[in-house]
């Protein structure tokens, strides 16, 4: 039985039950330190998280825009948070496709295709300054650019958010909502790339890269359209235009990000 004058150990608020109504902190009792309770809490935490991961993954792929709508409407407990989704998708992408050149330019291309002019001068300058060969510099670069492309990919989301923000009206024109929308789009794209790559590697016949890339782009464009249908109140014409804008902005950001990360990594290696 909890005493009426008991106060929360975390915020000092007067308690009227087993949990603080102000901060949600649980009232500690002796049984909380029993091995059975500790083990039960550990199992519950794992099961609840696992359930959230499964439910979030299913809705991310089968119901475009649904998770954004749920988050905006305040139904958040059953699902992983947007940043959790993005981080997990980021980890999965770079675990399976860490050296995939969609978000970075490998040294064989960056030191080669871009070797004319400033990049070639920078490569020569850095290799001379460090007293190493171009091949050794390329090895260091490839390691660093893989790490950097993971760390800074979040930079795409806040810029991508503007591609829907300018189409919104009324209560929908809150930038934070569009940032969340961009996080889910980026998360879906990362996993879509992993899945498409896995399929291509395991089919028993050769599939041209141009066809694969075209299919991925078409799926992503369709996903953007269906997500906007849930996210914003738009007529079909405006939604189509918004889909085109988001697609073009995303492609521009992806290309710009590749060069930015590659150049910055080389310059400050």
Describe this structure in words.
By secondary structure, the protein is mainly alpha-helical. The protein folds into 2 domains: about 30 residues, no CATH class; about 190 residues, no CATH class. It is about 65% helix and about 0% strand. The protein is built from 11 helices and no strands. The N and C termini lie far apart (about 60 Å).
Topology of helices and strands:
Blueprint: H1 35-62, H2 66-72, H3 82-96, H4 107-110, H5 118-130, H6 134-151, H7 156-160, H8 162-165, H9 175-202, H10 209-231, H11 236-267
Helix pairs in contact: 3-9, 6-11, 9-10, 10-11
Low-confidence stretches: none
Structural category? mainly alpha
Count of distinct strands: 0
Mean pLDDT: 84
Domains counted in the coordinates: how many? 2
Largest sheet: none
Shape: globular
Key descriptive features of the protein:
mainly alpha; single chain; 269 residues; 2 domains; 66% helix
Brief summary:
The protein has 269 residues and is an all-alpha fold.
